Amino acid sequence: MSGLLPVRMVERPWGRRELPAPFVAPEGQTIGEVWFEPQPSLPRLLVKYIFTGEKLSVQVHPSNAQLPGHGKEECWLVIAAEPQARLGIGFDAPLTAEAMRAAALDGSIEQLMTWHPAQAGDFFHIPPGTVHAIGPGISLVEVQQNSDVTYRLYDYGRPRELHLEQGMAVAKGETYPASSMFHVPETGSVTLVDGPNFLLDRIEGMPDAELASRYTGPLLVIPRGGEIRVGGQAVAVGECCEAASLDELALGDGAQALIAQPA
User: What is the set of active-site residues?
Assistant: First the structure.
């Protein structure tokens, strides 16, 4: 069934009181995430906007092989970033599990991570097992497997639970490959993720036959600009809509959207 996904605003200690348009934080709440609730027809994908006012915890997620039914592959498209904004992904040099655990305990893990400069249009793919964190001053769209399993390794002294035992069992003390990040050009259609767990493309205008052949059945549509309709209904930036198929999607000239589907 087509239609807009319900929205849930999630308070986070690292979030913001003021959000970029079109979002408005409820008065007195520090909102870090805007979730689009998955529906029964597409339960395996979750789309979020993330807005950071402070650093997120250093964390890691398991794969489906490590925790069946709870694996979490994710990716980020940066839509706005303040000067000096950075994303921590992987390590400057390979770490053993023992060295990673010691660094998580004494807080030096933050300094051992590689902090990548971030600007609007940057894209990062985060496979399970990748140690990562998001710095302050960043707005991004996250598309992920629908899993609520996050293992915090370090949280800057915040009074939240850490998960060292579980995290060490799945974390990879590896450098982050350059092939997993790139800058998305301002125009044109671009494949962002081609499996193994989901497909994600940024399209401009209607997709060509080759791209369309990869998407069968229901998919999610996340507008990024211009006139977009799903089943005749207008869908705006800041919304996420389910389409029963690509046939329901109509994009005006120059309009851009992200489209996503389980692989």
Answer: 152
